Amino acid sequence: MSARGSWLSRLWRLSTGRFGLIVVAVVLLTAIVSLLWTPFDPQQTDIPGRWASPGWPHVLGTDGSGRDILSLLIAGSRTTVLVAIGAGAIATVIGVALAALGALTARWLRESVAVLVDILIAFPVLIIAMMISAVWGGSLWVVIWAVGIGFGVNIARVTRPELRRVLQSDFVLAGKAAGLSPLQNLWRHLLPNVAPVFIVQLSWGMAVAVLAEAGLSYLGLGAPVTEPSWGLLLAQLQQYLTVYPLSVVWPGLAITFTVLGLNLLGDALREATDPTLSRGRDPLHPPRGAIRHVPEVVS
């Protein structure tokens, strides 16, 4: 079995990994399907049919304007996927770049990058997003860039010490002796060995990106009114909590399960890709230094 198939099978054997994969796959599939089909037009109003109870044809009911809640949730998954992937991509580029500059360059540049990261990390991500949104107006791209930059700094802070540790390994020194450039060493040896730590930080950043978008949309600083969003839907429905309390449950559950799935998937990926953790869970491959106790047979 290949290395990729091996860690994929380990990932699926973990209950957290299965749950995370299923949740993320469902959200991604829903976002793709929403591009082609939704039960009703998400923005179509039907005043006579407002506040319909769950049933047929409105499976989850309707809101105060008669819009189908299921269609709004399906369409809102596009916004969630766009924010999570966009913020994750930006955080990856910024985090890897800062970590590499802070680990592979001259001492004066390494220390300067470390000081810069310590300064930037003092500002909470959500506060930065709220400040930028308040200045530039509510926009999904503002949320994506704000969360991406904020968690890129977090990724750099956690990944930089790991890169410095792996940099002293024998295989990295052998790569240098073989004539590999710093970028080639980074790609072939350093990044694969810090991948478990990086994956956890990235999944956490994507989960917080989903929460940030929902929170800012709830406050009116995220997605515009014309763009379907779970946070915006939650803000609109909570005003009528006493009229139809069940309607608030659906967007809240969608946000909760998506964030939980991303967090659990990141933790499971760390266990599946980290050989020391995976050996610890495999009785045939105990952790290094562990003693396998064999029970004695008493006659």
From TrEMBL:
Keyword Nucleotide-binding among record annotations: no
Alphabetic keyword roster: Cell membrane, Membrane, Transmembrane, Transmembrane helix, Transport
Lineage: superkingdom: Bacteria
CDD domains: TM_PBP2
Regions crossing the membrane: 21-40, 81-101, 113-132, 138-156, 197-221, 241-265
Membrane topology of the entry: Multi-pass membrane protein
Subcellular location, record wording: Cell membrane
Cellular component terms (Gene Ontology): plasma membrane
Coiled-coil ranges (or none): none
Pfam families the record matches: BPD_transp_1 (PF00528)
ABC transmembrane type-1 domain ranges (all copies): 77-266
Family designation: Belongs to the binding-protein-dependent transport system permease family.
Official protein name in the record: Peptide/nickel transport system permease protein
